[in-house]
């Protein structure tokens, strides 16, 4: 069973690393990558064979589409003649619908849509997967199998993928922005940048572990930190006054809307 990854940038590499870590031999994985220097880097790092898009599709049973959303149409046009019924195409491009992909491929090609996120690089990814019109349980299972060593996955109806993109696809960026802001605030309070970074990174990591391991609702965990009349209450009051919760609502609606716009081919 050969898997081809078309477009091996940030997300493509996370998948490639995960697939290899999951035990699939490198001889069963092909890459197609437009930038020659990137292709050379991938071969050096993973020993992977890099071929052109059409050859990758010709030789693969399963094809992962990991180019930017606006490159998906041109790449599909380039490979359509090499695709055949029985193949599975898994698209990871934000906003691109399964019907967009299906319309550009021969009938009988199964399409599955996935929204991953970058913690996949360290095996802590969150992916949501949806079937297209011609894909069944075996295709979803195949996609789940490929994603297994990159983290967790859930199945969602495709109409929820724009919301998923706003929550978990883009989500790591919100967390990293919080990390940046807390580090800078620590520096303002007189901590060295090194100390502030250590404090913030471990606080975020520890808080995430606490959420996961206790299974407690975040409200309960937040209340446990917030002593009556104490320091946390003083800080949270400022965040509430700044409109943090409303900001998240507005921000995630903007991400959801941008995902919808990408699906109608709106340019960058
Ligand atoms: N980076 C992220 O956090 C996430 C990205 N995605 C999706 O993953 C896809 C890829 O995103 P990134 O990896 O961040 O972008 P990227 O720009 O790092 O990677 C895209 C790769 O595709 C290559 N490429 C471009 N045109 C090509 C062509 N015609 N043939 C072969 N290779 C080609 C580029 O050289 C590049 O290496 C996007 O559709 C994005 O929506 C989804 C969820 C999260
Ligand atoms: O920003 C983007 O469009 C992609 C999709 C989700 C995360 N990164």
Automatic annotation (TrEMBL):
A Pfam family this chain is assigned to: F420_oxidored
Residue ranges constituting the Pyrroline-5-carboxylate reductase dimerisation domain according to the UniProt record: 158-261
Subcellular location: Cytoplasm
Major location category of this protein: cytoplasm
Keyword Manganese attached: no
Annotated binding of NADP(+), by residue: 6-11
Enzyme Commission code: 1.5.1.2
Residue ranges of every copy of the Pyrroline-5-carboxylate reductase catalytic N-terminal domain listed in the record: 2-95
Keyword Cytoplasm found: yes
Family, as annotated: Belongs to the pyrroline-5-carboxylate reductase family.
Cited NCBIfam families: proC
Protein name: Pyrroline-5-carboxylate reductase
């Amino acid at each position: 069973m050969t898997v081809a990854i078309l477009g091996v940038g940030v997300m493509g590499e996370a998948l490639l690393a995960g697939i290899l870590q999951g035990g699939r031999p490198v001889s069963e994985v092909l890459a197609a990558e437009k930038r020659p220097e990137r292709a050379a880097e991938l071969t050096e790092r993973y020993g992977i064979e890099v071929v052109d898009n059409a050859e990758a599709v010709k030789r693969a049973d399963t094809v992962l589409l990991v180019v930017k959303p606006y490159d998906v149409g041109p790449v599909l046009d380039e490979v359509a003649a090499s695709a055949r019924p029985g193949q599975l195409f898994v698209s990871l491009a934000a906003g691109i619908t399964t019907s967009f992909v299906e319309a550009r491929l021969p009938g009988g090609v199964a399409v599955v849509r996935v929204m991953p996120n970058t913690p996949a690089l360290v095996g802590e990814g969150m992916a949501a997967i949806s079937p297209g019109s011609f894909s069944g349980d075996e295709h979803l299972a195949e996609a789940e199998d490929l994603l297994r060593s990159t983290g967790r996955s859930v199945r969602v109806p495709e109409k929820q993928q724009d919301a998923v993109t706003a929550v978990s696809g883009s989500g790591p960026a919100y967390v990293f922005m919080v990390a940046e802001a807390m580090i800078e605030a620590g520096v303002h309070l007189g901590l060295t940048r090194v100390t502030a970074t250590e404090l913030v990174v471990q606080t975020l990591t520890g808080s995430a572990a606490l959420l996961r391991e206790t299974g407690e609702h975040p409200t309960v965990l937040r209340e446990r930190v917030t002593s009556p009349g104490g320091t946390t209450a003083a800080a949270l009051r400022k965040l509430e006054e700044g409109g943090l919760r409303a900001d998240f609502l507005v921000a995630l609606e903007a991400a959801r809307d941008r995902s919808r716009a990408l699906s109608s081919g709106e340019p960058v």
